[in-house]
Design a protein that fits this description.
Blueprint: E1 4-7, H1 13-25, E2 30-33, H2 35-39, H3 41-44, E3 50-52, H4 57-67, E4 79-82, E5 89-91, H5 113-117, E6 128-130, E7 133-134, H6 145-149, E8 154-155, H7 158-171, E9 176-179, H8 188-200, E10 206-211, H9 219-228, E11 230-238, H10 242-247, H11 254-266, E12 270-277, H12 284-296, E13 301-306, H13 314-321, E14 327-328, H14 347-361, H15 364-372, H16 376-395, H17 397-406, E15 411-412, E16 415-416, E17 425-426, H18 433-440, E18 445-448, E19 465-468, H19 481-489, E20 496-499, H20 508-518, E21 525-529, H21 531-536, H22 543-548, E22 549-551
Helix pairs in contact: 7-8, 8-9, 12-14, 14-16, 14-17, 15-16, 18-19, 19-20
């Protein structure tokens, strides 16, 4: 290949970076795009030769032209790269949104794509996907869609959409299709036109889509959805708390949701409900009320998402200003991990109550009920939910312990204190937290701090990272620390600050071992100590100590 492109959202970012690193080692340039790259382009550029922000179809073609010498790199809209001559980062403004999205991707060109979708599965958790529109006219505070795709609703010609549906159904053995639009019925007239054409062409398939709850109050639309084969809809119900709905800027109320859900039940269209928990108005009782609402409204599946600081949202900016973001470990940004400090409950309480809600909803009793109704597909969905959520709860035990540590001293009577101090934990790709936890337990914290860049000579494409250690009183294996630290340092090529400012150890041998452990890494590693510690060890100061140890 002459160029490799990788698209990523936040929780797949580390995998994208790993792919990029493997490709770049072969001497092949890499460009990364997608939502995460758009909102975290400076971080992404550490692992790629180029970053494309926003919608990248046209920018990608222009980049190829530039690499072939047919245009200047500086003319590619939405491109971010490091200039080879000046070593400065060049940022070109993002191009306007694509006005014409009538193009059909050929996924059969992807190796293994066909074999994956042709696997015989009795109930499919991976339907074929078709995009019919982009954009969302709404503006939920926790969502980055409007910044990535805009508020203006852009859609493909219905003939183009139906043509793609017929094409993918002829290529693959699957007969179920998911419309990946953010809101399939945002344009009612166009949705009716598309559904009528599907019915007219007598397409033999089942469909699912994301819609708003108020779609369930539109009788004409419901009839067409049912007749066309729409058997499942996914709805962002978000909350049963009226104050939370206002906080999220959701233009719907609890009664609106109930009325809409009643319409879907009437026409036999199943509903997968999605809820976002942990707003400033939510309590533990809110979570219990949420799962009870889902059961009473006969939802076939639910997703309980912890309110998270996704890059690119107004909510994230507010949370960062208030020091309420717990972690910026992108592998945790899947909606299942609690990543902020809620106001009316502790993070660990939110996490545990979400587990309990899942256990209540995805029960074996519900599975048997579906079996009795001879609804094998939804019995399978419920059984999958029963098994996967319990397995995930088991996997989350270490993270739950971590939450109980970071929330200490930040709550009083179950409510978040004002003006809390917390540095959001970082997780650089090559210093995975799993390794840190395995070597040091939960006592070592990883922070990214570009303010330290002035301490390092030379040009580093990777930003400095500060590894912050606790006081010696809470560090059980202090004597083994220097040797274990070198294992972490060997994993990265980035500048590293070993923050020992909270260590009060006066053990001369410990400091000598620490200096010897980091010395092989040269100018790339610095040690930050307390002022008292710095002055106490003037006798054994080596050249390395003078160059690499500092205090503030």
């Amino acid at each position: 290949a002459d160029l490799v492109g990788v698209s990523t959202v936040s929780n797949t970012t580390f995998e994208a970076y790993k792919i990029a690193e493997r490709v770049r080692k072969l001497g092949i340039p890499v460009v990364i795009g997608g939502p995460h790259a758009t909102f975290e382009k400076m971080e992404t550029l550490q692992y790629a030769d180029f970053v494309i922000t926003g919608e990248g179809e046209h920018s990608m073609l222009e980049l190829i032209e530039a690499l072939e010498g047919r245009r200047e790199l500086s003319s590619v809209r939405g491109l971010c790269y490091r200039d080879k001559l000046s070593n400065k980062i060049v940022e070109i403004p993002t191009r306007p949104f694509c006005s014409d999205i009538n193009f059909v991707p050929d996924f059969s060109l992807i190796r293994g794509f066909k074999s994956f979708y042709d696997k015989p599965i009795r109930f499919s958790m991976a339907p074929l996907q078709v995009l019919t529109s982009r954009g969302c006219p709404y503006g939920c505070r926790f969502c980055s869609v409007i910044k990535m795709s805009g508020r203006k609703f852009r859609f493909r010609d219905v003939e183009s959409v139906v043509g793609e549906i017929e094409q993918v159904l002829s290529k693959y053995k699957r007969k179920n299709i998911f419309f990946v639009d953010d809101n399939f019925t945002a344009n009612r007239k166009r949705a009716i036109e598309l559904l009528n054409l599907i019915i007219k062409r007598k397409i033999n398939a089942t469909f699912s889509a994301q819609v708003r709850a108020d779609t369930g109050k539109d009788e004409e639309l419901l009839k067409l959805m049912k007749k066309s084969g729409m058997h499942l809809v996914q709805i962002g119900l978000e909350s049963v708390n009226p104050d939370t709905l206002k906080f999220y800027k959701k233009s719907q109320g609890l009664q609106d949701m109930k009325d809409g859900l009643r319409g879907f039940r009437k026409y036999g269209i199943k509903v997968h409900g999605m809820f976002v928990l942990g707003s400033d108005f939510d309590t533990l009782d809110t979570i219990d009320a949420t799962v009870q609402f889902a059961i009473e409204q006969k939802l076939v599946a639910i997703q309980l998402l912890a309110l998270g600081p996704l890059p690119g949202t107004d909510l994230t900016n507010d949370m960062m200003k208030q020091n309420r973001v717990i972690s910026r470990d992108w592998s945790k940004y899947d909606g299942n991990h609690t990543l902020i400090f809620p106001k009316k409950m502790k993070p660990s309480e939110l996490q545990e109550r979400m587990f309990r809600a899942y256990r209540k909803f995805y029960s074996l009793k519900r599975t048997w009920r579906y079996i009795a109704k001879r609804s094998g597909v939804f019995a399978g969905v419920n059984l999958y939910g029963y098994l996967s959520t319990r397995y995930f709860e088991f996997l989350m035990k270490p993270y739950l312990k971590f939450l109980k540590i970071v929330e200490l001293g930040k709550y009083e009577n179950g409510k978040l204190l004002e003006n809390i101090h917390h540095e959001a934990e970082e997780a650089p790709l090559e210093i995975p937290n799993k390794l840190v936890y395995r070597l040091f337990g939960n006592t070592m914290r990883v922070f990214s701090n570009s303010a330290f860049i002035r301490l390092f000579k030379g040009n580093y494409s990777l930003k400095p990272v500060a590894l912050k250690l606790p006081s010696s009183s809470s560090f059980k294996k202090i004597t083994r620390f220097p040797a274990m630290l070198s294992k972490v340092l060997r994993k990265t090529k980035r500048p590293v600050i070993i923050d020992c400012s909270e260590l009060r150890s006066k053990d001369k041998k410990f400091w000598q071992k620490l200096v010897r452990a980091v010395a092989p890494f040269g100018e790339r590693v610095k040690i930050l100590v307390g002022k008292g510690t710095y002055k106490s060890f003037t006798k054994f100061r080596s050249e390395f100590w003078k160059k690499s140890v500092f205090y503030r």
